[in-house]
Amino acid sequence: MQTRTKYLFLTFLASWLLLFLLGGARLRRFPFFSGRRAEARRSWPRWTERSVLPSFAGAEEPQDGGVPLGPSPHAWRAARRRVYRGSRCRMETCFDAARCARRGFKVFVYPAAPGAAVSGTYLKILAAIERSRYYTADPEAACLFVLGIDTLDRDHLSPQYVPNVDEEIQGFSLWNGGRNHLIFNLYSGTWPNYTEELGFDIGQAMLAKASFYAENFRPGFDVSIPLFPKDHPQSGGEPGWLYQHALPPKRKYLLVFKGKRYLTGIGSGTRNALFDYQELLHNSTFCIIPRGRRLGSFRFLEALQAACIPVLLSDGWELPFSEVLDWGRAAVVGSERLLLQVLRVLAFQQQTQFLWDAYFSSVDKIVHTTLEIIKDRLFPHRSRARFFWNALPGGLLTLPDFSTRSGDFPFYYLQQGRARGARPSPACPAHVLTLSTLAQAPILVLWSCEKLPPPPEKWPQITVPVTIIHGRPRLSERFLPFPEIRTDAVLSLDEDTSLSTSEVDFAFVVWRSFPERIVGFPARSHFWDAARQRWGCTAAGANELSMVLTAAAVYHRYYHSLFTHYLPPALRELVDRLAACEDVLMNLLVAAVTKLPPIKVTQRKELRDRSLPRAPGQVKAAAVGWFGYMPLVSSQLRLDPVLFKDQVSILRKKYRHLEKP
């Protein structure tokens, strides 16, 4: 009996040992064996297990729901090796910067092959490059090359897919293994995994790509761009829904999400019938932006435009233009806590509008931002600091060739904590009189006549230096960035304009408080002529104005650089051909940069009014076509001196000479 009991005990013990050795991991999940730790274990299921979640997709619909299954590690590594053979590429190793140093930063676009299929979106990108100041039609003068082959959609199931790209690019004499080439891509990979497979070897080329995985992104070499729809505007773009410096309205919803906007499937029709998508965006403070089939989503740009703070749920996404943009000031990324302090929310909403207007509202801006980032890498000694990209008016409108110091621009005086005017007093690049209150200001006279200027003894004998600049009979040369202008402020006067020193001094005092605007005397207003379907201009004595003519105005010298180097040559040539409206074009430029109206100041005597030529309509139409919208902003503001026309003693007034006798 004892022997039998012993054998039974040994058999039972051996069975338990085998059970623990072969299935112990599963056995330890039971509370009986896990002890007290089972009491602390949560009771909800593991939502990552597919057995827990039923499928709601139709039989004909791929069961990816916009979130595909992850590929196997082997498949992922194989796809990555095929695309990123130059994964260690940097500007120092895979880009010939010497070519740019010799020829400057110029971009050449390969001509498309006859009969080649090119999508409308890629045509917009190529047009944006050709509209930029960096485009060249000479490949020998180019620093950067862009393919004429449409590489935007590399999903081989898509009708926009272009096959045999490898064979075509290998036949290009300038390909050179992809060196100094830039490839644009919006869609990579295919169902079900949507990896970053492009279907051809990019070699040492840079990628400007949407839905970029951070682990595949080559910092300082590739550029992450946003995913934008095919109907995204070429230029200009729709403005944001929140006005600059405006207090955001109280919104109905705190957090919203609406998926499957463009797709069919269960629930799509119901959602579209119950909720208006634009109304949801407009009435929400936060918008959830989860990943779609790829990391990027169309919802991202829509939320930015609507001033709906994006809550990004897309792990591993290298955000668009993250090299220069500080997304921590405009979006909630990943698992960051949702900070609901009022001031933080308002700042986020304002920043979404700035980023939308500055970089994402049109294809032109997306492409030009990409080119400017690459240019800053090539010339780091003349590159923009990150601050310029994340503060008004943005990196595209702060030219590093002018300066790399924020204090040299007219936009950042509030951040500097001082008013303008600490620098020398204004210079005068047109026909001007001397300024008694600004005795150190040099006077520049732009002489555009065919006759020679008078000899030096014929000029007024004054203590202020007078410099004669011989120019060509072109009105646009009035706004060239002359090196003789060494001051922030520029007092521009026509040859037949006469102002008193009190008027000039008061205009300069006002400009010191608003250095980003044009401050002056003769004003004009624009209007839409419905009968002729065009923009018009009037000098009628109304209370509203949108332009201050540079016949007598003070503005910042930086606008000379923008006028010459930022505006397209076609606009300046139009002004020269019409021999009119260079001041109208300057007002359009400043309004587009600042989103603010000019400022009219008091004058003792109205300047002689001139009959308006018909040219303003042509100039406005051409400028609106380039900007994509009418940038002029109307205002009813006029600034007068303190005690102006008040019934007090004239001795108490600083600008007593401004009042008519």
TrEMBL record:
<dbReference type="GO" id="GO:0005789">
    <property type="term" value="C:endoplasmic reticulum membrane"/>
</dbReference>
<keyword id="KW-0325">Glycoprotein</keyword>
<feature type="domain" description="Exostosin GT47">
    <location>
        <begin position="102"/>
        <end position="346"/>
    </location>
</feature>
<dbReference type="Pfam" id="PF03016">
    <property type="entry name" value="Exostosin_GT47"/>
</dbReference>
<dbReference type="InterPro" id="IPR004263">
    <property type="entry name" value="Exostosin"/>
</dbReference>
<keyword id="KW-0472">Membrane</keyword>
<keyword id="KW-1015">Disulfide bond</keyword>
<feature type="domain" description="Glycosyl transferase 64">
    <location>
        <begin position="441"/>
        <end position="644"/>
    </location>
</feature>
<keyword id="KW-0812">Transmembrane</keyword>
<keyword id="KW-0735">Signal-anchor</keyword>
<dbReference type="InterPro" id="IPR040911">
    <property type="entry name" value="Exostosin_GT47"/>
</dbReference>
<keyword id="KW-0256">Endoplasmic reticulum</keyword>
<comment type="similarity">
    <text>Belongs to the glycosyltransferase 47 family.</text>
</comment>
<keyword id="KW-1133">Transmembrane helix</keyword>
<protein>
    <submittedName>
        <fullName>Exostosin like glycosyltransferase 1</fullName>
    </submittedName>
</protein>
<dbReference type="Pfam" id="PF09258">
    <property type="entry name" value="Glyco_transf_64"/>
</dbReference>
<dbReference type="InterPro" id="IPR015338">
    <property type="entry name" value="GT64_dom"/>
</dbReference>
<dbReference type="GO" id="GO:0015012">
    <property type="term" value="P:heparan sulfate proteoglycan biosynthetic process"/>
</dbReference>
<keyword id="KW-0328">Glycosyltransferase</keyword>
<comment type="pathway">
    <text>Protein modification; protein glycosylation.</text>
</comment>
<keyword id="KW-0808">Transferase</keyword>
<dbReference type="GO" id="GO:0016757">
    <property type="term" value="F:glycosyltransferase activity"/>
</dbReference>
<dbReference type="InterPro" id="IPR029044">
    <property type="entry name" value="Nucleotide-diphossugar_trans"/>
</dbReference>
